């Protein structure tokens, strides 16, 4: 992976949701779910420089010795490690700060709500709670040199997330752009990026397709570079900030009923995404 763009260092990592089927979830359980150590090895084999460990890996419940072993594995593989959590609470955040210290993580990606595919019914209440918890945590964030990045998801609209960050008013709390999640609010990624860019700390790079189906439209993910996302345009805007942002590749592709080997299909999607990103960065540098 090229790690320079016009002299600027590019930090590119793999998010654990790139292997949502290999890891497993309530709607799909593989015979042998991918574990934390497997994911670290897969990211290194694909050529990534780092990883973002999200809640699908269920790592926050691991004992300390298991986390220390994973941190050592990441160091041996030369991977930077970022963390991901959802459902903000004081104790939950504190637990992830403990884990950040183990891994030497400098970024915690945060989804404010719990498991929900729909907008928050009481957005003002969620916003007020988030501002209070994050403001109270600023001292710990400074002490540990950690940044919390709020990701646009399906709970709050981008304007709500922006208002939280502006009310907290500290560089230790920023924003993470997910390039497909805003579609749930009928907001294109370029629009969300324009709002987020003053406070941007990371980006989740995912491509998508929109197809006309009977009586509506079908929106789904695809391998990077094979959909509608203007990947180069997004990258130019992000890298143009000249800030040390991480670029995290994920997948939001949906299996089809006729797939006989879902895990091989997912692995191939990851391989194609990595090759496409590598080629696009080279072309941008030329």
From TrEMBL:
Domain Xylose isomerase-like TIM barrel: 40-258
Keywords: Isomerase
Pfam families in UniProt: AP_endonuc_2 (PF01261)
Isomerase recorded as keyword: yes
Gene Ontology molecular function terms on file: isomerase activity
Family matches, as Gene3D superfamilies: Divalent-metal-dependent TIM barrel enzymes (3.20.20.150)
Entry-linked SUPFAM superfamilies: Xylose isomerase-like (SSF51658)
Protein name: Sugar phosphate isomerase/epimerase
Organism: Paenibacillus piri
